[in-house]
Amino acid sequence: VGLATAYTLCEKREILVLDKNPSFGQETSSRNSEVIHGGIYYPPESLKAELCIEGRQMLYALCENHNIPHKKLGKLLVAQEKKESDKLEKIFDNAKKCGIDNLRFIDGDELKRMEPCVRSAKTLLIPDTGILDSHAAMKFLYDYSRTRNVDFVFSTAVTGIKKTSAGYKITVKEYNGETFDFLSDRVVN
User: Fold this and answer.
1) For 148, which of 74, 106, 124, 176 is 20 to 30 Å away at the CA?
2) From CA 73, how far away is CA 46, in angstroms rounded?
3) pLDDT digit string (tens) for 172-181?
4) Whole-number pLDDT of residue 158
5) Is 47 exposed, middle or buried (0-12, 13-18, 19+ CB in 10 A)?
């Protein structure tokens, strides 16, 4: 999130990114599933649904435009027994209500061509689901941001943020244990 925020804002202002780790991407990002989600499960008209769909499109564009390894593989949801078919219908209806209009049910012959070892009573194809190399994406965001008004300071933990009349007083602790404060007119946390 820090890298993406820096990337998005770097053309508009000088930015300082503080990270308690010795390098970027060593928290949640280093352990993500690297899936580009289809957005089929969120409630219709919810912010999650809207942002997932918009974000997916933006992520594919970013990967395409900057040669970040990715693949739009699609996803198969399989009802192994007839009684599970209703669940697939509900997922299909929900996705349609969210504005996802390219998913479809596939027949047994098409499933066999795609995945010969899978047996299914009913199968739903979600074409926009994919994967990406999240580490390559983070490296791109980092490298791009560094060339445009962004300074990254690693091994430095933020220990306090206080609103003052002059802006925000940021207190940080460096890897050697020393602490210091500085002022900023804006903070993204």
Assistant:
1) 176
2) 26
3) 999 999 999 9
4) 96
5) exposed
